[in-house]
Amino acid sequence: MLSVPLSVLDRSRTRVGESEAETLRATVEVAQQVEELGYKRFWVSEHHGVPGVVGSAPTVLAAAVAARTDQIRVGTGGVMLPNHKPLVVAEQFGVLESLYPGRIDMGLGRSVGFTNGVRRALGVEKDAADDFSTQVQELLGYLAGTSPVHARPDGGLRIPPYILAVGEGAAIAAALGLPVVLAARPDSVELLENYRATFQPSAWAPEPYVILAVTAAVADSTEAARQLLLPEAWATAYSRTRGVFPPLQADVPVELTAREQEYFDNALRGQIYGTAAEVDEALTDLVRRTAADELLITTNTFDRAALLANYSALAKLTG
Question: Which CATH number fits domain 6-216+275-318: 3.30.300.20, 3.40.50.2300, 3.10.310.10, 3.20.20.30?
Fold first, then answer.
């Protein structure tokens, strides 16, 4: 049995034959089901101008999720801070925390738009991520009330911040004394060792806290679990070879070009899937090797009934 809590990241992935409004409503419905299964958090993401992803306004979507749930923590995985003014982000989370006290998480990332057109529309350039550490400190100043400008609502709100670690993000989290969210990768152990070794205790976190993001799928057989991951793997291969990220589709083409096959195989590499016993063993080993405090699960598949069955099976691994 897993010894750490599980949470869910939902990217609001569209499906063939489904409207984008239906996708957003489905995200809220998944959150309700995840809450009933006992997950700790439900986070939503930020993507701009991506046809297959409609989670473009995470604080707005988080508000909808929080309004339709009762106890589960709700947050962002994450708000891409270079795309926004820190004061505005502080105000948005202040409103969320005021409406849903004690339930809001503020996950922050440093990515900018994927294309030149999106970056121009957002008013940022590629190098906007270089100022991420300064932006985070400015944002925390508004929340702590130490800035000359006071964000409203202002009531001594305590909104826990998390840094999504891509590139040097883990080092920034350690320097600022903040919890880190890191995707499970071959170099995760080394990155986390450095994060813990250089962590500076802060008012936000007295000690390191690690949330490890991982893709996991459980089914009655190893092959059935693998099948759950194929729609997302094909969408990834499609996007890499055509420049457009498509909605998830039920069936993956039988014949792939050599280039498509390479991207398809790479998309599946490192993901965890299998029977409940197989996934339990793999996740337990991952937690042992990384000393993660929590696992953030993301699973994208076409069939939402199968998705919820997967989340139910994963929840049972925690006892």
Answer: 3.20.20.30
